[in-house]
Thioredoxin (Kitasatospora misakiensis), 110 residues
Amino acid sequence: MMHIAGVAAVTDETFAQEVLAAEGPVLVDFTADWCPPCHQMAPVLADIAREEAHRLTVVSLDVDHNPETQAAYGVLSMPTLMVFRGGEPVKAVVGARGKTRLLRDLEDVL
């Protein structure tokens, strides 16, 4: 399973506690080891996790090992980045992108 510095891995078992019950917004990276764009996103997500820690939690979920959560949110393409707030998904973006564009895409939900 791919590990990103500063980004906690969540599972089907821990998703409700770590994401749905979280205080502030949580960015979930739906990822897979076999996905080249997911690997491109790793340093971007590590930077965002570090720089935006005061207002955003970043976690990653391996879809191959956690099919229940992937199915529950209808995630079909990797990477899918989904922001949850108050237990609900409030924004989703699909595909790799640079840090500046990703932060701009997420601005309205942070």
Remarks:
- The first strand starts at residue 8 and ends at 9.
